[in-house]
Design brief:
This protein is mainly β and about 100 residues long. It contains 1 helix and 8 strands. The radius of gyration is 13 Å and the shape is globular.
């Protein structure tokens, strides 16, 4: 099954609300649309892969700024505090369990 990820993200009713696209083993593949607003800090008990398809994601990881650009993947290890700062935009794919 082929999916246009950009069109899928554009069809979502709200920014920062992911939708599960599918699953591979225990890993969920989620897509969301980013906007310029910040997203509050999170800590997970699992690793999370953040793949920016287009745009940029302005992360704060353990209080340090990290910009993840189109075509880049950032792996957030379990137990790591991370948040999204203002100014992010584009399409994001999340892989988690």
């Amino acid at each position: 099954m082929a999916v246009n990820l950009h069109a899928f993200a554009a069809s979502l009713p709200e920014a920062w609300r992911s939708r599960v696209l599918g699953q591979v083993g225990p890993a969920r593949i989620k897509v969301l649309r980013m906007d310029a607003l910040a997203y509050e800090e999170e800590i997970h008990d699992y690793n999370e892969a953040l793949l920016v398809l287009d745009g940029v994601m302005a992360l704060t990881v353990r209080g340090e700024p990290v910009n993840v650009r189109a075509g880049e993947l950032y792996l957030v290890e379990a137990g790591t505090p991370h948040a999204v700062a203002q100014g992010s935009h584009g399409t994001l794919v999340i892989v988690d369990v």
